[in-house]
């Protein structure tokens, strides 16, 4: 006999429902949940291999101080005392939390509450900064709120799905399966893939546009110009619901057609074919992901896309809208609780005095951060300069995943006090911890996550935590209590979720999009059996309102959306010394820095070692042959050594290297060491897909 538990996959932002079965011998089996509305039973390779990743090899099992086992009391007292002392001596901005889209919403909520409401600093940022912060900034500019308008079913209802900078087939595989199935059912449906690489996603594309890196703004501004010149603008929608169209169109027209072709690298027929199919299709969904967000003009890319949807009124209705796809399982949950340094809880604004006062009163907190904190890249720079003197890193491995990874490693190593909470004992980051706090992982902890379509689902424990590992929310609550703060007396995640829900509804008269007030009085029993649902879920209202902007009402104070005049001015960073553009990204069967997926032999077998995809013409001119070992070096002086993979799927002039491998899993393969800390000036998101490098055969 086995016991079954419904939970959610911990990998990507699709947020698939999973049924985990544990038999009498303790053996775990995993299958897709047919009732979950994200996946209807489907799982991808990573999700279906979850049971193979649950062994305890390498797990952190007890608290440690400088590598020595200690009791929880000793470790927590040391963390609380050192943070309190540092704040008393150097002020609240001398400490920081760096957290993760892997945290559950309840963990995230308490970390944000402790830092912003009780310590009184905005210095909490998250690895989601590297993933989707440009989308957040673009949404806020256009809509007045960080709102993802649509639903997954919109991809199935569309006449045209445009995928920009998104390898859906590998990075959101089950959503790709849903799209492929819909296209097979409806041969009239068109798919356009816009990506410098011809990825697996291109296999279902009617049109693949191998746009130049960072050519996206020029492309969508060219589309806006085409729509205006061909009578495809919805002038009634604009008049009723949006401001700034004339300025956005003037900015788009500032780039000539010839310049658009040069910036995009497209042939005239390709540009025209895209514009024609977009103009002719009534129902259009434009999905975008890291290829859009991870850019020094990422926010403008997002707004250039949204401009085209606003201009045609294709938003808020079935089968149409711009759609940001989040990378991590709970990037959306982090946004909801204010896990970014420039946001406040429940989608309130840290720059708004009334919002700050509202949150402070709700928390009954002694203080509230009065300005945005340091975003991820700036946070680690502040660690390097000594401005940050105590740092708590939760559930992430920045020594591998941050840009300028070597400088980040050196900064953490020089920090007077570093706390790391992780499930693994010996990550590149955990090795630098003064205090290591063992965390429970997937299958051992309970809480909620929110997927890319705003659907909140439960993660449920079905295994005991190993050794002395404890959930992140418990660790944060214990430190908060030991720092002398009240309001951290939660005994279980249910009460944290209820508090989060109550805050979302607190003095919310409909001017804020995020409202799950119907969950505020939920009992622990109700929380246990909470079914997946999409927000909003307001108290006293039916749950039918799942697609935003259907009424043409946006969240700027005047209720209207904003067109944004965007700039095509992407920096050209290549030179004779560094002639190739490095694009970093994911592979199908690994996740982040492989702490889980490397445990599965079949996942590791897909692509067994790190590689660089190089176009054969570039390889020929560099004297590189297929399977050669090559050294890629950037202007930072950092380098990786990887296997050359010659393929015409890669555009000429650029190379692709996956981001998963560490120096532990393959010698000299931390590709983020090559990525400089250049960021989008609005979102602070690093430009991880546009790095000038040189390649040499070893
Ligand atoms: Fe998990 Fe994403 Fe695969 Fe779904 S698509 S099973 S959420 S990795």
UniProtKB/TrEMBL annotation:
One of its GO terms (molecular function) is molybdopterin cofactor binding. Residues 2-58 form the 4Fe-4S Mo/W bis-MGD-type domain. Its cofactor is Mo-bis(molybdopterin guanine dinucleotide); [4Fe-4S] cluster. One of its GO terms (cellular component) is membrane. Keywords: 4Fe-4S, Iron, Iron-sulfur, Metal-binding, Molybdenum, Nitrate assimilation, Oxidoreductase. GO terms for biological process: cellular respiration; nitrate assimilation. Belongs to the prokaryotic molybdopterin-containing oxidoreductase family. NasA/NapA/NarB subfamily. This is Molybdopterin-dependent oxidoreductase. It comes from Rhizobium terricola. The chain holds residues 1 to 698 of 885 of the full protein.
């Amino acid at each position: 006999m086995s016991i079954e538990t419904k939970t959610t996959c911990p990998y990507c932002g699709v947020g698939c429902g999973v049924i985990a079965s544990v038999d009498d011998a303790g053996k775990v089996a995993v299958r897709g949940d047919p009732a979950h509305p994200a996946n209807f039973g489907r799982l991808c390779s990573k999700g279906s291999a979850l049971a193979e990743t649950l062994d305890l090899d390498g797990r952190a099992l007890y608290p440690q101080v400088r590598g020595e086992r200690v009791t929880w009391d000793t470790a927590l007292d040391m963390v609380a005392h050192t943070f309190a002392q540092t704040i008393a001596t150097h002020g609240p901005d001398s400490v920081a939390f760096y957290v993760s889209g892997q945290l559950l919403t309840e963990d995230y909520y308490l970390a944000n509450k402790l830092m912003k409401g009780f310590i009184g600093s905005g210095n909490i940022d998250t690895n989601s900064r590297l993933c989707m912060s440009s989308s957040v900034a673009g949404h806020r500019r256009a809509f007045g709120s960080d709102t993802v308008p649509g639903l997954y079913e919109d991809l199935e209802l569309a006449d045209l799905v445009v995928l920009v900078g998104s390898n859906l087939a590998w990075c959101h595989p089950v959503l790709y399966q849903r799209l492929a199935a819909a296209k097979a059912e409806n041969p009239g449906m068109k798919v356009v893939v816009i990506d410098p690489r011809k990825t697996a996603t291109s296999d279902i594309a009617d049109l693949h546009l191998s746009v130049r890196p960072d050519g996206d703004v020029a492309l969508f501004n060219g589309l806006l110009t085409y729509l205006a010149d061909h009578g495809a603008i919805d002038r009634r929608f604009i008049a009723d619901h949006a401001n700034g169209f004339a300025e956005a169109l003037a900015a788009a027209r500032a780039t000539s057609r010839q310049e658009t072709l040069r910036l995009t690298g497209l042939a005239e027929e390709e540009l025209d074919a895209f514009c024609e199919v977009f103009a002719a299709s009534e129902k259009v969904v434009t999905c975008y992901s890291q290829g859009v967000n991870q850019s020094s003009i990422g926010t403008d890319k997002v707004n250039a896309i949204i401009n085209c949807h606003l201009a045609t009124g294709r938003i808020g209705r079935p089968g149409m809208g711009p759609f940001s796809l989040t990378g991590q399982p709970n990037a959306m949950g982090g946004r909801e609780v204010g896990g970014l340094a420039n946001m406040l809880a429940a989608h309130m604004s840290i720059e708004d005095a009334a919002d700050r006062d509202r949150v402070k009163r709700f928390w009954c907190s002694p203080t509230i951060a009065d300005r945005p904190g340091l975003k991820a890249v700036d946070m680690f720079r502040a660690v390097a300069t000594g401005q940050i003197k105590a740092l708590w890193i939760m559930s992430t491995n920045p020594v591998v995943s941050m840009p300028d990874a070597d400088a980040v490693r050196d900064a953490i190593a020089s920090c007077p006090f570093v706390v790391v909470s992780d499930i693994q004992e010996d990550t590149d980051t955990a090795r630098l911890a003064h205090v290591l706090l063992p965390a429970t992982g997937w299958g051992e902890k309970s809480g909620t996550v929110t997927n890319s379509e705003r659907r909140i689902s439960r993660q449920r424990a079905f295994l005991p935590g190993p050794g002395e590992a404890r959930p992140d929310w418990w660790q944060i609550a214990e430190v908060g209590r030991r720092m002398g703060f009240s309001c951290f007396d939660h005994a279980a995640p249910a009460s944290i979720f209820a508090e989060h829900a109550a805050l979302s509804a607190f003095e919310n008269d409909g001017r804020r999009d995020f409202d799950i007030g119907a969950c505020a009085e939920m009992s622990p029993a109700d929380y246990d059996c909470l079914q997946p649902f999409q927000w909003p879920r307001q108290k006293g209202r039916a749950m039918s309102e799942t697609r935003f902007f259907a009424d043409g009402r946006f969240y700027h104070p005047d209720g209207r959306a904003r067109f944004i005049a965007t700039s095509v001015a992407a920096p050209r960073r290549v030179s004779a010394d560094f002639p190739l553009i490095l694009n970093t990204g994911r592979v199908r069967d690994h996740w982040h820095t492989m702490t889980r997926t490397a445990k599965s032999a079949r996942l590791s077998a897909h692509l067994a070692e790190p590689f660089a995809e190089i176009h054969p013409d570039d390889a020929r001119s560099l004297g590189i042959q297929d399977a050669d070992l090559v050294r890629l070096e950037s202007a930072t002086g950092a380098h990786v050594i990887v296997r050359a993979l010659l393929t015409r799927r890669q555009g000429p002039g650029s190379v692709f290297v996956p981001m998963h491998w560490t120096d532990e899993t393959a010698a000299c393969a931390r590709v983020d060491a090559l990525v400089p800390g250049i960021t989008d000036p609005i979102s602070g998101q690093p430009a991880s897909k546009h790095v000038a490098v040189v390649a040499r055969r070893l």
